[in-house]
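Deviation from plan, reported transparently: PMV complex.
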Amino acid sequence: MESIATAPGKTILFGEHSVVYDEPAVAGAVNKRAMVKVSSTPNDYITLKSYDLAFEAILNTREGTYKLIKGKPGIIRYILNALSKFHDHSPIDIELGLKVPIGSGLGSSAAVTVATIAALFDYHNVPFDKELLAKSAHGVELDVQGIASPLDTLVSTYGGLVYLSREKKIVRFENNLDVPFVIGYTAKYSNTGKMVRNVRHLKETYPEIIDPMIETMGRIANEGRIAILKNDVDKLADLMNFNQGLLDSLGVNTQELSRMIYIARKNGATASKITGSGGGGSMIALCPYNPDRVANAINRYDNTIKVKFSKEGVLLGEDTGLI
Ligand code: PMV
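Because the crystal trials were delayed, the predicted structure below was used instead.
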């Protein structure tokens, strides 16, 4: 018996951090995915192997612990938490594929969590239900990170370029945002939980200053939604740059991210900002004119990753062909 699921990573255009305080956000699933295969096993324990992440472990889901056989565990806590909730402790083999760099701000943890739960549900004959999947995956992120908005898990489940309203309703854009983006990432791990806690601390310490900034980020996301609907790339650029200024003020910028952001602008990007929680991880540049020039300039110091927005959310079955 074998169940396979894949789920996409994501990039946030507007709303990282402010979405935690129920402000709206705009984000898109990307064409880089996580794959999880769950199979029955002759062993009497649960194994987890990842070729992409070069690790192997034996999991004890009753105690929530693991024994590492090889490599570094990375994303294992999300898988353990999902197993403790949606598996019956019986022996299985789990294989994890991951084309989203871990800690890159591109939603690797959500993609792994959504794909793990989808594969487990299929393995246990739970009917495929995206609403239940997204909710269950958000629960896992909350357990592991302590604080998390449902944005990443919703986007990874449903796919597409989406607007998340204050009421947590997800609305897909019908039009394709037809303009090239370049994503640059640092080797520095972005710790979402830590960054979210830092912003919460600032918000609690300086509510009169930070609350209006977070509200403004929400307004930017709403205006961003309109700019996308009208394909108004100039306005989109202004809004992304405003958003970057506010993210910088919230203390989630780093020297490496800043370097990429300004290199991108110097080389023709009309906008560039952090995408995801910051403190490391990734930035996204809007490049209507010469994306290759921007990518080459960033690559001199850091790395870029080519991603496209993808309509596909979580998929079940052998032949998703997307990883
Ligand atoms: O860095 P990522 O990909 O985990 O994105 C986090 C987005 C935040 O708004 C900072 C946190 C959240 O839970 O929405």
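The chain has a mean pLDDT of 94. We consider this an acceptable substitute for the interim report.
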